[in-house]
Design goal:
The complex is a heterodimer of chains A (about 425) and B (about 160). Chain A has about 425 residues and is mainly alpha-helical. Chain A has 17 helices and no strands. Chain B is mainly alpha-helical. The longest helix of chain B is centred in the last third of the chain and has 25 residues. Classes of the chains: A mainly alpha (about 425), B mainly alpha (about 160).
Amino acid sequence: MQTTLAALAVLAIGYILAYVLFDRLRDRYGYVGGAEYLLIGFILGPRVTGLLGTTQVQDLTPIVSLALGWLGMLLGTYFRLPGLALLPASHLQIAFAEAVTTFGTAFAAMLAIFRYVAGYGWPDAAVQAVALAAVATLCSPAAVDAFADRARMHHRILPVLQFTARIDAVVAVVAFGLVLAVYHQGGVSPAVRTPTATEWAVINLAVGVASGVLFHLFLGPVPRLDDDAGDSRLFVALAGVIVVASGASYYLNLSPIYTTLVLGFILANSGRAHRDVARLLLATERPVYLALLLFAGAAWSAGSMDLLFIAPAFVLVRFIARCFGGWTAGLHIAPPGLSTPDLARGLLSQGGLAVAIALNYSQVRPDLNPRLILTATLLSVLLFEMVASGEAAAFIAGIGEGPASRSSDPTLEPGESGR
Amino acid sequence: MIRRLVVLALLVGGAVLLEPLRAPSAGVIAPKSLFLFGILLLTADTFGAVAHDIGLPRLLGYLVAGLALGPTLSGIVPAGVLEDLSMMKRLAVGLIGLLAGAELKVSDLRIRYRVILAVLSLQGAAVLAAVWGVALISRDWAPFLQGLAGAPLVLSPCSSRPCSP
């Protein structure tokens, strides 16, 4: 019963804070939030008040898997191929260049730290480096969006920023999902042969594809569901398929975020219900994110002090990788109308998926420094969310009014902010 | 309907295929339970829609879905999984209570408190009297009611056996 109460407390606090505080802070000050929820979670957790005990935090792990799947699916639904086909090539070039450069830089730096400073073997160093590089690559344009909304500004670079954040997320989630599959942890039944690395990667992808195809068939050629009853039915079905896909990944010790990303992508590009699916997922994004932050705060503990230096080193690496990625894409890849050396200033905020990836890592690889990865991620969230609004304001001031975008990002549905 | 049933059958088949890819493990909620919970949700949605189409409440469809997949009939969801999912049950009940409470408006209650009190009192008294009467009359034929006096029958529904927690 304690666990149920704990889950309810986390959900209720997340929900209330999301709607009472989050929107107002974002609209008035461009503050995207995150740090305070981590602190509340830490205070509720076993190390301070003990309202959420260690057992309760462990008991909530499957619920966290669902939340991870929820966020992964939402990310997948953003990528509708008809919308992507309308994007200017320059947007794609900027987004992919920024994502790959940021990920590559962070991965190289973290691999060197884990291999040569911490002394891990190549496979273990690679797994940890990919996890942290994925976290480093993730970002959110929410702060920039808030300032742009306040100033009623429509610069051509703003849709690029939103699209770049999504490509960053895809690169991070795919890399993270693949590394967990390739260096798979966990035994199989004695009755079957242990799958190879490639086979695990294929199984991971197949679970996502199969879930997407089956859910598409399950929904069928339904009309748009505008009424409340239709929404409720779709919500139950949606929850069911996310539970199935996340549960399968959780069962196989793989990444639910990656699996549901594939599921969301398939749903976004098939059937007529994609708008309703995306709307429902978007409506629940903030409470899910805040519940994850609260859970992460409660689950946090410092772990080994010997390796704790890696956490601040990671924050520095992320800052450098972000700046390098933004500089490369914004100055050398972008066409003259979109050229800006300060692209990274608009993408400093960490966003919700970073915490999701760290929690997912803690579930799947409890043998390989899960506390360090979570500590580094939470430190990064705390520090970057603090500076993100200031940097976003400077970014907006830097680009000025500029040329207005002729069309908004076609991958965005009405009312979306690109977070 | 047939399409949905085929999808559900494929999901169950998928669950069987994936089963050997993990060594048996236990937890507060075993990983397998989460997967089966998803299948339960989708089955419930399907059966709920069928019930709605034939003019019955969706809730009846949900109950039939649970019965069909549960240990009594098909056994696709074994008893152990149901125990694992008891947390979900409590969470759902808690959420229903939370949301019901959130929808209550004190101002509305103040305006209509007389009607509400009257309805509640009458309803409570009527149900109590009816249950009491039926129980007293059927005492001789229902083994679990035998040996009960009139007053304890009304006052304590748990008086004949220990209350479950």
